[in-house]
Design brief:
binds pyridoxal-5'-phosphate, alpha/beta, Rossmann fold, six-stranded mixed beta sheet, four-stranded parallel beta sheet
Length: 399
């Protein structure tokens, strides 16, 4: 796919994206866009961000041939892009370090953000500590319980964690309240954690995450002398998946597979299959495919993985799906927990429950392919935050 160049100047990815916000926010978002566009091409900014990634994040993250997992799957080679090894334990830091430099350029002294699994919240609290900024993190009360280790981490880093008790008490509600707080405190900087929300966030977050795919391409060319046959990643809002896929969009021989949470099953009402089952709508200030009932009301999503529990999805993914450039599949909670255990037992790597969705699909796919085929999976985060919940609530301990 040559000449792929989105968003347009209005922040549209085809019919998706844009900016549907009250006038008070419109101007603030224009400022953020202006600051980002100025920085994006500034060699000093690029140098500083690259430096921070090298010495603070620990980039480049390794691309690891998971040989035991590959043997277990019995087919294609499975490589893991080890975003779990980044400082703070997930891909989220790629975005928050970049946005911290944007906030600093704008002279902001306070960050606010939403979080689902707590990984983005930790990554925001981390950069707030590092850059000497105040920090409020909004988190659904249900996620506060499931991901309490990350709540302690955020607090230790000096952030205020605000439990959100409205709605379903998960990520969607946390974004609702955080956006509300941003409207009331426009002097703060709102650090969105995925490739969602009003323009310029989907573009900016994608750009900051695309370091994943740039590295992975170089690494796989070095390891295999060719591009992979598949790139596979889990999709909540879409930032780790786009981060891996963006560099490969022009390389049509690389199939891009977006793994969504099928929760308790695609045929139940408890899933987060926005790409698979959503309809065009507006959520959190942008247009995308979003889970809706027959009356067009936004439906609740569900996944055991808090970071995937979102009824919408990034606008660029919706476009890539329409263009036929990404394939979308669903993986259930039960399957993700199976992969969580399998990766732990075969490779000694405990993945985030979110990332385990991608691992499950990659193993299944590998088993159907010849041994000379190559799959790159984005291991978006590590599972420390999930261990207690998985161990106490989700697995059969007799095993
Ligand atoms: C480890 C991990 N992977 C994936 C996700 C999903 O987000 P995204 O789709 O933006 O990568 C999250 C979100 O919290 C996460 O913590």
């Amino acid at each position: 796919m040559k000449n792929y160049n989105y968003p347009d100047k209005n922040g549209q990815f085809g019919q998706y994206g844009g900016k549907f916000v009250p006038p008070a926010l419109e101007n603030v978002l224009k400022e953020v866009e202006r600051a980002y566009l100025e920085l994006r091409d500034d060699p000093k900014f690029i140098k500083e961000l690259n430096y921070l990634h090298r010495v603070y994040t620990g980039r480049p993250s390794p691309l690891y041939l998971a040989d035991s997992l590959t043997k277990n799957a019995g087919g294609a080679k499975i490589y893991l892009k080890r975003e779990d090894l980044n400082h703070t334990g997930a891909h989220k830091i790629n975005n928050t370090l970049g946005q911290a430099l944007v906030a600093r350029k704008l002279g902001k002294t306070k960050l606010i953000a939403e979080t689902g699994a707590g990984q983005h919240g930790v990554a925001v609290a981390t950069v707030a500590a590092k850059f000497g900024m105040e920090c409020d993190i909004y988190m659904g009360e249900r996620d506060v319980v499931n991901q309490h280790i990350n709540v302690y981490r955020m607090k230790l880093l000096g952030a205020r964690v605000v439990p959100v008790t409205t709605g379903q008490k998960t990520l969607k509600d946390a974004i609702d309240v955080a956006l509300g707080a941003f409207i009331n405190e426009p002097e703060t900087y709102y650090m969105l954690g995925s490739a969602v929300g009003p323009h310029p966030y989907p573009m900016m977050v994608r750009d900051f995450q695309s370091v994943i795919g740039r590295e992975a391409k170089k690494q796989i060319l070095k390891a295999e002398g060719r591009l992979p046959d598949y790139a596979v990643a889990c999709v909540g809002g879409g930032s780790n998946a786009l981060g891996l896929f963006y560099e490969f969009i022009p390389d049509e021989e690389v199939k891009l597979v977006a793994v969504e949470p099928a929760g308790k099953g695609a045929d139940t009402n408890q899933h987060g299959l926005a790409l698979g089952k959503g309809k065009l709508g507006v959520i959190h200030g942008f247009k995308c495919l979003v889970l809706q009932d027959d009356q067009g009301e936004i439906m609740e999503s569900y996944s055991a993985a808090s970071g995937l529990d979102y009824p919408g999805v990034g606008p660029e993914f919706c476009l890539l799906k329409d263009l036929g450039r990404v394939e979308t599949v669903g993986v259930t909670d039960v399957e993700a927990v199976e992969a969580f255990q399998l990766l732990s037992e075969t490779e000694g790597i405990i993945p985030a429950l979110e990332s385990a969705h991608a691992v499950f699909y990659a193993v299944k796919l590998a088993g159907q392919l010849d041994q000379d085929r190559v799959i790159v999976v984005n291991l978006s985060g590590r599972g420390d935050k999930d261990v207690k919940n998985v161990y106490e609530n989700l697995i059969n301990k007799e095993k």
